[in-house]
Protein: Sulfate ABC transporter ATP-binding protein
Organism: Nocardioides malaquae
Amino acid sequence: MSIEVKDVTKRFGDFVALEDVTVSIPTGRLTALLGPSGGGKSTLLRVIAGLESADAGSVEIEGIDATRLPPQKRNVGFVFQHYAAFKHMTVAKNVAFGLEIRKKPKDEVADRVHELLELVHLDQFAHRLPSQLSGGQRQRMALARALAVEPSVLLLDEPFGALDAKVRKELRDWLRRLHDEVHVTTVFVTHDQEEALEVSDEIVVINNGRVEQVGTPDELYDEPANDFVMSFLGEVTTLGGRVIRPHDIEVSSAPLVVGAVEGTVSRVLRIGFEVKLTVLTLDGEAVQVQLTRPLAAALGVREGVTVWLSPVAGATVMPARPSRPAATQLTTVS
Ligand SMILES: Nc1ncnc2c1ncn2[C@@H]1O[C@H](COP(=O)(O)OP(=O)(O)OP(=O)(O)O)[C@@H](O)[C@H]1O
């Protein structure tokens, strides 16, 4: 493991931002810290970087106890959402900065900067000033600068958070490809589940200062540890008091399955290939259901018709959480 965080607690005054967090981050992988705003993702990243010191617990980086090391001795590269470039220096100079203060030979610096700018596809902009770059290009420059000093770990705090959706999507694909080329252990913070699922090898779900679950995107999606993780990784609804994904509900026009829940279609929304239904059950539950357009047409669903709902085979369902964690038990319908 590249990073071992053990029993870390971090308080700001009376507020507990991280509570007894233990997590192992594997070498050479792209790991996302995912969770809602205020959950403690950035604080954990900053504790790993040494920008915040933990009140209790330890941080090991590549086998070295880094708990008391200052950031510059941890061999980590850091990129923030709003990257502060040296405005008066060219892109190439910005990337070269870390190497020059380490007094590397001029030729070596020039070669490395060229190589890095090629890697982040900015070689044609080497002589521009940061203000002459787009937001996405600036973040790529920031990544090149962080990579210049060959950190053992790259820490990214919502690196694409300030950019518009389209550029964000491009950069996330680009980050994945970049990581496949350089394989540096990378930890990035995001509150966007789609970004985490698409880009990362491993996801750490953080909520209320605690780790809810660690796993691959598939593990988290197929076997969420609790209803929080399940609901954070995609849309969920409730059927008969249990949490289920809207596309995991089977709709029929007759009670074909024992235990199927009867209800009336109260709303039909057609969005491209998808049809979203709201079904009001006899118990007063408003169940959200997602169907394909052909299936909805075949069933003849429209507002006011009576339908029966049941989980499809293999659906992930779990009790809605009144309190945690005793009430959260994963069930797979067979
Ligand atoms: N320097 C600080 N002083 C006081 N409280 C802080 C400080 N830094 C963070 N916090 C609090 O700790 C909690 C966790 O913050 P953190 O930035 O780690 O959350 P986050 O999950 O990264 O959220 P976001 O996605 O909004 O950045 C928040 O409630 C925040 O207000």
Q: What stands out?
A: The longest helix spans residues 165-182. Residues 108 and 203 are 36 Å apart (CA to CA). Residues 12, 15, 17, 35, 37-43, 189, 191 surround adenosine-5'-triphosphate (CB under 6 Å).
